[in-house]
Amino acid sequence: MKNGMMLLTTLIAISLMLASCVIVPKNSHVNLSADDSRVPAPSPASAAYIASTDVRHDVDWRCRNAWSGRPPERSIDKCREDASRRDPDFIGLAFSGGGSRAAVFAAAVMFELRRHGILQQADVLSSASGGSVAAALYAASCDDVQDCPATVNPALRRTIWKESEVYPMLQQNLIDRWRINCWRPENVIRYVTYFDRTDVMAETFAETLFGGTRETEESFLFRDLNPRRPYLVLNSTNNTDSAAVPEIFTFSEQDFGTLRSRLDLFPVAYGVAGSAAFPGAFHYVTLRNFGAQAEQYVHLMDGGVQDNLGIESLWRILLRDNGARYRDVPVLVILADARPETRAKSAADPDPRHFLDYFVDFSNIQDTYSLLMVENQRLRAREFGKYVRSRSRGLFIHLEFGMLRDVHPELYEKVKNIPTNFKIRDEQAQSLKEAAAVLVGKAVERIHADPYWGGRFN
Question: What is the total count of domains within the chain?
């Protein structure tokens, strides 16, 4: 036992020393230049175009969901050709952060929405942090193994979007898998470069969710997304001094275009890692800015720092072209909110400090950060909801655990106490599925009661 502890301590010390002393200037970024002639030319079959903030809401969703065209045709172009079949509505789904808790809840909400015919008609998915895990998995998946669009990389297999396949994937212990991968000899060697624990998390996402391989360049790339799926917007936070303030960065054609970089060849697992790189646990995901004259980089962290609800990008989409594109468009936005509530200190506790607080008051710092973030998100959700409802035929539905407090108090107590890391127990996941069924059921009642939206779905 003693020898084992000494070995573990030695390994940790070596890892920290290697990680803090870059010897070989390699592995600084994984994105590729749009002007690099050495990389493969864009594939005509690429579906990277669905990762975009230029959302064409009027794509006929029936045409898109049955898309079987041949490249270089694109579903979003071909399915808009017949003006008589244009879709008049904008339907956006937003998924909050919150680790595996958010991922399972987002997936459960999508399964419930599909039962009511709503998911099939969605135009865009916008997500942050843990919610991005489920959103990206859905965008890469298909519904029927007998009718599944091919990937550009023929070695890849799409996940079939059914509960028996999706939930076991999302309920994996990603934290323990990540820890194991951190100590793989090939990774320990790379710690003398710019390679860090966030790169390992991207490898872990690739291995468990997006291709079954730790080699991220052989996993699902954005070109391998499913052209039958809604637009996908994975949100991260740009914390680079070239930005005036920390701002939202999306793994989209638009933001990669500003970097003169190839989105189609970028690993989906890195997009998810960039959206879920929680400060403290993970380092930045760094991208090379090939559009700058000098060697410049963009440093990305958890999307939840700037917007943990995934609604800001939807708001920007609706305001595109000074709002002209969506001025008279009916709008439905459903927000699946799995973020934790703040926990106030007990009035019966004379000293709420933890052990480490006797040396540095970490709890106080963490509580302050959480309070500020939650209050900001609450205000933004209220403002966004007011904006959507102010529109003609606008409906905003906010699915949050607090709605269970009075009608399902036992279920509320279960879901509110689920941790927000990337580790979840089966019984916790089951509670999230039950919560999604209740909350979506209430949402559908509201939709059916709406004069316009009531006749749009099952």
Answer: 1
